[in-house]
Amino acid sequence: MAARSESETDSQGEAVEGSTTALRVNRSKTGVRAPIPSDSIPELDDPRLYFNRELSTLQFHIRVLEQALDESHPLLDRLMFLLIFSSNLDEFFEIRVAGLKHRIAFGHEDPSADGHSPSSVFAEISRLAHEQVERQYHILNDHLIPALASQGIHFLRRSQWTRDQQKWVHEYFDEEIMPVISPIGLDPSHPFPRLVNKSLNFIVELEGQDAFGRTGGMAIIPAPRSLPRLIRVPESLGQPGCQEYLFLSSMIHAHAGQLFPGMTIRGCYQFRLTRNADLSVDTEDVSDLASALKGELLARRYGDGVRLEVANNCPEHLSDFLLSQFRLDRRDLYLVDGPVNLSRLMAMIGDSHRSDLRYAPFTPGLPKVLRNDESLFAIIAREDVLLLHPWESFSVIENWLAEAARDANVLAIKQTLYRTGADSGVVNALVEAARNGKEVTVVIELRARFDEADNIALASRLQEAGANVIYGVMAYKTHAKMLHIVRREAGRIRHYAHMGTGNYHAGTARLYTDYSLLTARESLCEDVHHVFQQLSGMGEPRHTEHVLHAPFILHSRLLDMIDREARNARKGRKSHLIIKCNSLTEPQLIRALYRASQAGVKCDLIIRGTCCLRPGVAGVSDHITVRSIVGRFLEHTRVYHFHNAGKPETWCSSADFMERNMFNRVETCFPLLDRHIAKRVRKDLDTYLLDNCQSWQLHSDGHYEKRQPGDGEAAISAQETLLYAYSARA
Fold this sequence. Notes:
Blueprint: H1 53-66, H2 75-105, H3 118-150, E1 153-155, H4 163-177, E2 184-185, E3 200-207, E4 218-222, E5 230-232, E6 243-247, H5 248-255, E7 264-275, H6 289-300, E8 305-311, H7 316-325, E9 333-336, H8 346-351, H9 376-382, E10 385-389, H10 395-406, E11 410-417, H11 425-435, E12 439-444, H12 452-465, E13 468-470, E14 477-478, E15 482-489, E16 492-500, E17 512-519, H13 522-536, E18 548-550, H14 554-570, E19 576-581, H15 587-599, E20 602-607, E21 624-629, E22 634-635, E23 639-642, E24 649-653, H16 659-663, E25 665-671, H17 675-690, E26 695-698, E27 704-706, H18 718-729
Parallel strand pairs: 1-6, 8-9, 11-12, 12-13, 14-25, 17-22, 19-20, 20-21
Antiparallel strand pairs: 2-4, 3-4, 3-7, 5-6, 7-8, 10-17, 11-15, 15-16, 16-17, 18-25, 19-23, 21-26, 23-24, 24-25, 26-27
C-alpha cells in the first residue's frame, strides 16, 4: 500500500505527517452535527444531543484497531487486536449495515433519536469504513509484518519463495488442494455460482479454448472451506529458527493454470462477499423454534450481499462485474492490500510458540474463603461470595455444579444458558445431575447470535440425558445469567443461587471481565426462583423483593434511581452515580442522565462500546463524563452504583442500557447486599475511573481521546492493577 503523502489529511481535516512508519491516533468523530452554542440549552429530545448508534459502534471497533499500534501490548497481541477488528467489522456489516440497507431498500427513512436517516448513516459508515480498512492494511503491511519478521516470523510472498519451497508448494497443491478444488467456468450453462457468506474466492480471466471448444472468458475458483488459509512451511525448508507461513491464496494464485489446462490466465484475483447474516424467525407463526432456526441457519450463508472485498490489483471491469452479480454499488466495494480474510491469521497466533511475544499467562486465583477442601455449599451458606473473572477462577462455578450433581441432598438444579459450548464443564455437570435423577431444568436461548447451532446441539444433549429443556419466551431473548440449586439440609429445603454479568462459558471467562455472585440469602434465592417460575410457566409477572428483571421492572426502577440522585442534588445533598456497561443507547435512560446532570449530579459513565449520549454540553451534560476502557481483556461487567444520600447501592446486571435489554430480553439486575462486597466493587470502579493508559474519553464533538498520564502522574492501567491486586489476594 502506498504511503500517505504530506498533503493528505486525516478525518479531522488536519495535516498528517505522512510516512509508513508513523500513524496518528484516529480521531474520527461519531457522526455528530455542528456544536451546540453555549448560550443555547436544547430540549432533552433534541437530536443534537444524541450520537448515532451504528456510527458509535463503528467507533468502538476503531478503538480496538488502535490497539494494534500500541507498543505497550506484546507484538502478537497487537496482531490479535488487528484481527479482532477484522472479525468485528465482519459482524458489523452482517448485522448492522445489513439492517440499514434493508431499511433503505424498503424506503424506511425515518430518522432515529439522533436525527440521522438510514441513508445518511450508511453514507457515513461507508466513508469511515473505507478509511479504516485502508488503515488496517497499512498497519498490517507497514508495521506488524516487518515487526514480526524482525522476530523471525515471516509471511512469504510468492516472489520470496526459494526453489525448494516452490517445489514443496507444487507438491502440496497437487496432493492437498487440487483434489478438493472445483473451478467454475462462467457460460450460459454455468451461471454465476451462489457463494457462501465470507468465503474466499477468486475471479479468473482466461484466454484460449477449452476441451469443448469454448472460448475463454471468466471463471470462479471457490477456495474449499476445509482447507487452512495459512500453511506453515516445513522447518527444513525455511530459515533456521524462523517460523515461515504461506497463504492458501498465494498457492492457488501460483497454480491456477493447472486448473485450466491449455488456456492462458490473464489475471486471477481474490475476493470475498459478506452477506446479511441476521436471522428472521416469525415468532407468531412458529410451532417449533429449534426446527425453524435450523432452516434459518442454512439461509444465513446465502443472505443478500452487503460488502464486497477484492484484491486492490483487480481490474475495474472485473470488480464492476462482481458488483453487478451481487447487486451492489461502488460504495460497497473495498479494495484490500493483502488477504481478504484476515481473521484466518488467528491460526498463526495459536500455532506460534513465541510466548515472549504474548502477554504472560496467569493462573486465576481464588478468594481466601474458598482455599480449602470445605464443601462449597457450606461456605456459601455462611456468606456471599463474589468472583471477578478472569482474575478469579470460573472453575468455582463448574466445581459447584459438579458437587451438586453428585450430592445426594441436591433435589433440583435450574439454569439459564446463553453462550456456553456443548462440551463445557457446566453442561457436563448438568448432564450428570440429570442422569443421577435430579430435577434439572435448563432455559436455553437458541437465538444467541452466531451460537444458534451450538445451542441446538446443546439442547439435544441435555434432553437425551433427561433434563427439562425450555427455549425461553418466543418474543424475548433470555439473556439473564442465573443458577438455582435446591438442597435438603437437616430436614428442610435450602436454596442457593448464582447470578452473574457474563455467560457460563469457561473460555470467555478467561478473556472477559465479569462478576459472579454466589449466595444463599433467602430473599435473593426466592427472587431467582420466581424468575425461573415465570420463564417456565405462565401468568402475571412474579413479585421480587430485590432482583430487578426485564422486561418488567428493570427499566422503570433504573429511571427511579437516577431521578433519586437528581432529587438529592436539588436538595443540596451529595449525589453521584457510576454506570459501567457495554452500551448506552436507550433514549429514556439518556434523558434521565441528562436531568441528573442538570441537577448537579456527578455522572461517571464507563461505556466500553456504543454510546449515544453526548457529554459535555453546557447546561445539559456538563456533569457527565464518558470513558471507554479497551485493553487486554474485554470489559463486560455491568455495574450500577448510586450514592443515594450516603446510603450507597451497588447493583450488578446482565443488562446494558439498551432498548433491547430493557424491553425485548429477559434480564436480571441484583443488589450486592453484603457491605464488604459492595465496597470492594466500588473500589474496582474507582480503579477504572483512574485509568490513564487504556481509557478513552468521549468529547462533546464526538471524538474519543486516549487519556495519557500527566507530568509527574503515575501510569495506571485498571486491568493491570486489578490483575496484580487479585493475584496478590489469591
